[in-house]
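Q: Fold this one first, please.
A: Sequence and structure below.
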Amino acid sequence: GLPSSLQCLDISTCKKLISRRREWGVAKLPSLTQFRIGGIDDEVESFPEEDWLLPCTLQSLQLWAHKNLKKLSYSGLRHLCSLQTLYIRNCTRLQSLPEEGLPASLTTLEIEKCPLLKPRLRWKKGQDWPKVARIPCIIVDLELVP
């Protein structure tokens, strides 16, 4: 397994390793504060998957280039009470944010190259705006949303 003292984990475009993600045991890593995962081109449509838990110690989560990702799972994110930063990049099929919203601890949301999500985050007008309005720092395609 992974060392319990691991603080940062970055997994990128490694198909064999990513396909065995349920075996990593990341939920059991009490020191993990930063997790970055990207380059997933399998059939994953929801993140995190229901049978794959993330540790509640996460402060930063970065998702990038999940080719088939369509939604974020509220049930998989709601227990992340330490999460401060969520960065999502190049998830071209991501359609919306969870209906129930994002973790209350979130202070920064950065979305880049997510064309279906971008219009939904328009200031005061987007369909997902009510879900993110309380977040102090929102950046969409490198522009700070007022």
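Q: Good. Now the second chain.
A: Here it is, same layout.
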Amino acid sequence: LEISSLGEKDILVLRLDLTDRSSHEAATNSVLKHFGKIDVLINNGGRSQRSLFVDTNLDVYSAIMELNYLGTISLTKHVLNHMIQRKRGKIVTVSSVMGIMGAPLASGYCASKHALQGFFNSLRTELTDYPEISIINICPGPVQSKIIHNVFTENLAKSLENTGDQSHKMPTDRCVRLTLVSTANDLKEAWVSDQPYLAVCYLWQYAPTWAWWLMNRMGKKRIQNFKSGVVSLFR
């Protein structure tokens, strides 16, 4: 549809709390009642992290997994039931390059994204009887967004003081366009990132020993920057 042709009946906005899993079935039913079907689910809710594990309360890790992982698969479960009945649909999950590598100051965030990668890659293998249902994982690198303003820190009550400059990150509209292209072409996994971050992804995939060496060197500097209040140049 052209944007100009969209009418009031073509748009439905619902408030949704991913951590309130008991509300996900009703939200799914509201969408189905309004539109009659769900063609695409884009899982894009989540929070990042900036804190060292040794300084971080465990309830922060619980909250990260509750939001980024359990909330996502809860909503997916209700929508997937409908897609299985129709035998078609696309489930697009915004993971992260942190779902295929590790990085300091983001151990909980990385864990949640690794969990999503493992879950959806496994789910795909359970849907071989439904070839028209696509499971698509999008792994963005650093992208201009508000995510840095809402990161988890050492405890649930603390916010990040210095969010830094985002001009070096991929523009939001380019990330969206590449996500849509990946969705339209049913890519199982897409790494959406500029260089040099994309090259680091390839290192983790094909030369992990070199990746560990590089991340140890970069990570040490990143931790030093974090402790001195300087925001480093990678996510």
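Q: Anything worth noting on the second one?
A: The CA atoms of residues 61 and 108 lie 6 Å apart.
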